[in-house]
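Entry: Anti-sigma-W factor RsiW
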Amino acid sequence: MNEHEPVDCSFIINYLTGECTELERASYERHLRTCVSCQEELRELQAVWQTLPFHMEEVEVPADLKQQVMRSIGVTEPPKRKRSFTWLYGTAAVIVLGIMAGTWWNYSESARSKEAASALLRNPAEVVNTFTLKSADSSMPSALGTAWIVQHGEAYNVVVNLSGLKETQGDWAYQVWLNHNGKKYNCGTLRVDDKGIGVLSYDVRVKELHIDSIGVTLEPDPNGTQPRGKKVLGS
């Protein structure tokens, strides 16, 4: 197709899937402005197209995939002018591709989930470090806590149990920080009930977890990326 060559209604699939040049796309969009039939068909095709699974990994597909799909629905070449067959070709192609993609995605996700579950069963959870937290605020002298670093396979989980703290009100929250080499890393926030008890469980996705100490601060809200409030507990 050259710059001045007009497009017809059969170009809708190429436009929908993005298999066209900028000039072809612009030419078809000019066609869309005056073709009510294409406008309606495009809306329907987009509704089907948008139901396909998201966030799929790219895989190499056969070079003749389009021909395979065409043969499977009994069409050798998409008609150029007959509107009823254009819709049949477009809808059938998108649905067949959707079924193929959906089947592959579900199979891959199921295989990955089974593999991950099997790996966890083969590797029981183990406490690799324990931190005792003591009060660092004179207004809460009875505050104390324990933090456990649990390794499960290639994943780590930080479990923190606190008591003797003042109950949180409004947006206020306690925030846990992991300290290593002078740097503080946010480990999540928690609220404390009227008995002064709070629990936090936080997953850390790293190959190796190095922690020098753990601290807890009282923050005006749970949105901080660095400590802003006063320290109430520390190891």
